[in-house]
Amino acid sequence: MKITRFPRGTRIRVRKGRFPMDPALVGRTGLVLHPDWLVAEKVGVQLDGEERLRTFTEDELEAV
User: Fold this and answer.
1) pLDDT 10s digits, 11-37
2) Which of 16, 50, 55, 56 is the right S-S partner for 60, CB 3.0 to 4.6 Å?
3) Is residue 45 part of a domain?
4) DSSP letter (8 states) at residue 23
5) What is the pTM of this model?
6) How does DSSP classify residue 36?
7) Domains contained in the chain, number
8) Who contacts 4 (Cβ-Cβ below 8 Å, separation ≥6)?
């Protein structure tokens, strides 16, 4: 059973990970809404000021 590093409700900050991403996302904060238990390392996050859910890998996030 996989245990996520970022359970639902965790406040996070986006950081540069191993995959290319929009540089404007780095440093933004948000809230974990959907840790994906089925797909390793995928986390659904709602960034502050946005309504949509974005998907990040665990190495692109840090807890704040």
Assistant:
1) 999 999 988 899 999 999 999 998 766
2) 56
3) yes
4) G
5) 0.84
6) -
7) 1
8) 35, 36, 37, 43, 58
